[in-house]
Specification:
Helix content: 10-25%
Bound molecules: zinc ion
Order of helices and strands: EHEEEEHEHEEEEEH
Structural class: alpha/beta
Number of helices: 4
Shape: elongated
CATH architecture of one domain: 3-Layer(aba) Sandwich
CATH topology of one domain: Rossmann fold
CATH class of one domain: Alpha Beta
CATH superfamily of one domain: P-loop containing nucleotide triphosphate hydrolases
């Protein structure tokens, strides 16, 4: 479990993993603890993430905290003057300026806690996540459980091949899979396409 460093000022934490790995729950856990310690916190998410509702970061178990939907990463800077802890959810959907923005925040003595998908459904690094992970002081990779075999899962396997990288969905479209079961699934999809 992540333990906050003592006597540090600004820094960056990244929580990454597949779908259903508990990334948002971990972000909320960290931010809530800071809030209990009377620190001013604020969570941001890209406006496009509207799977549940527009004003709250909602994890899959409805454990929520208030958040600010923003159009661009630039916009975050406008809302953080009085804030000590900045949370960022669904970071993979933000624009390419987000790493620079996170550095500015951390350099200004803010704790930045970022959650995001590290790979898309094709198992390719997702958006700005690789840069964020490289720049962060602390990176936590959380895992789901493979729905096929029960092993540790790091892939977001998607049943449908139609649609682009950005396709929001629920359990009927995605399932967490381990490496072996992900490969098997992708090979089966290829066979289906070749028919
Ligand atoms: Zn498996």
């Amino acid at each position: 479990m992540f333990i906050e460093p003592k006597n540090s000022k600004g820094w960056i934490e990244v929580i990454c993993g597949s779908m259903f790995s508990g990334k948002t729950e971990e972000l909320i856990r960290r931010v809530k603890r800071a809030k209990i310690a009377k620190q001013d916190v604020r969570i941001f998410k890209p406006k496009m993430e509207t799977r549940y509702d527009k004003v709250k970061v909602v994890s899959h178990d409805d454990n929520y905290v208030d958040s600010f939907p923003v159009d661009t990463s630039d916009e975050i800077l406008r809302w953080v003057d009085d804030v000590q802890v900045v949370g960022i959810d669904e970071a993979q959907f933000f624009d390419e300026k987000l790493p620079e923005i996170c550095n500015i925040l951390a350099n200004n003595n803010k704790r930045v806690v970022i959650a995001g998908l590290d790979m898309d459904f094709l198992a390719k690094p997702f958006g700005v996540m690789p840069q964020l992970m490289a720049m962060a002081e602390y990176v936590t990779k959380v895992h789901a459980i493979c729905m096929q075999c029960g092993s540790v899962a790091q892939y977001s396997y998607r049943f449908s091949k139609s649609g682009g990288q950005v396709q929001l969905g629920e359990k009927d479209q995605y399932e967490p899979r381990c490496r072996a079961c992900y490969i098997t699934g992708m090979e089966e999809q290829k066979v289906d396409t070749d028919k």
